[in-house]
Amino acid sequence: MANNNAVFHFDELKMYFGEDYIVNGYVTIHTPTVGEIVEFGEQDYYSVISTLTAIPSDMKSILYDMGIDYETISDFEFFYLLTRGCTQDMTRLLFGTLDLSQMELYKDTQSEQYVLYHPQTGEKIDELAYLRIAGYLRKLHGLQAKVEKAANPATKKILLELDRNKRKNNQEKEYSSQLKPLISAMMRYPGFKYKSRELKDCSIYEFMDTLQGAQIYVASTSLLQGSYSGMIDTSKISKKEFDWMRSIS
């Protein structure tokens, strides 16, 4: 297995300009624009993203009801389970013609490792490719994997119950757009350079980067103004916080 630096090194400049990401010889991820997500259907799109980036900790109670311990199943095995329902039509915006639902678990005779393999097309996803897929999609959408381990059986029982209640509450809620409030906020921001029609051509990564950059700019300029007026004690504030051009990550 390659080290984490090799697995999770993504060219952020290419992401910013919406270039596709080549995972391996079989899988390429398309970096969608805001307009493509709107056309595809935001709810369907983020549902797929949630599925492809999920880890066992995210679905504790569901796995428990299936007789599976979320702490023992690997992320790769979990990915296989989740993709049984990921048809080509559901993932076409990201993967084009790739059909994850038709790929099965096989043991590679050379590496002795399990891989997802499509017997008709020869397409293959090994664990390294999976890590790149999940890592890239998380980076693209500003997501973080939250691994939860229970210290003891009692704690695990509590975590399972909390997850079950959370899922029940979420099922009772109507879907609320994730992008609309962010776009609306940026349209009110004086420094935002795009009109709504122009925004459709932005990659989703460019838009999210611009959103975070705007927050940094406002915070930094507010600190500078406060320091000049003498209303803020700057002695305990890092100089980096005053730099609106600092890195977002």
Keywords for this structure?
mainly alpha; two-stranded antiparallel sheet; disordered N terminus; 6% strand; three-stranded antiparallel beta sheet; 12 helices; 249 residues; globular
Topology summary:
Elements (H helix, E strand, L loop, with lengths): L3 H4 L4 H5 L4 E2 L5 E2 L4 H7 L1 H12 L6 H6 L9 H8 L5 H8 L8 E4 L6 E4 L6 E2 L1 H15 L11 H19 L7 H10 L7 H4 L4 H26 L20
Antiparallel strand pairs: 1-2, 3-4, 4-5
Helix- and strand-based class? mainly alpha
Q: What is the terminal-to-terminal distance?
A: 26 Å
Which stretches are poorly predicted, pLDDT < 50 over at least 5 residues?
1-5
The main sheet orders its strands as: 3-4-5
What does this structure look like?
By secondary structure, this protein is mainly α. The protein has helices at residues 4-7, 12-16, 34-40, 42-53, 60-65, 75-82, 88-95, 127-141, 153-171, 179-188, 196-199, 204-229, and strands spanning 21-22, 28-29, 104-107, 114-117, 124-125. Strands 3-4-5 form a 3-stranded antiparallel sheet. A two-stranded antiparallel sheet has the order 1-2. Strand 4 and strand 5 (124-125) form a beta hairpin. It is globular and about 65 Å long.
Give a nutshell description of this structure.
The protein has 249 residues and is mainly alpha-helical.
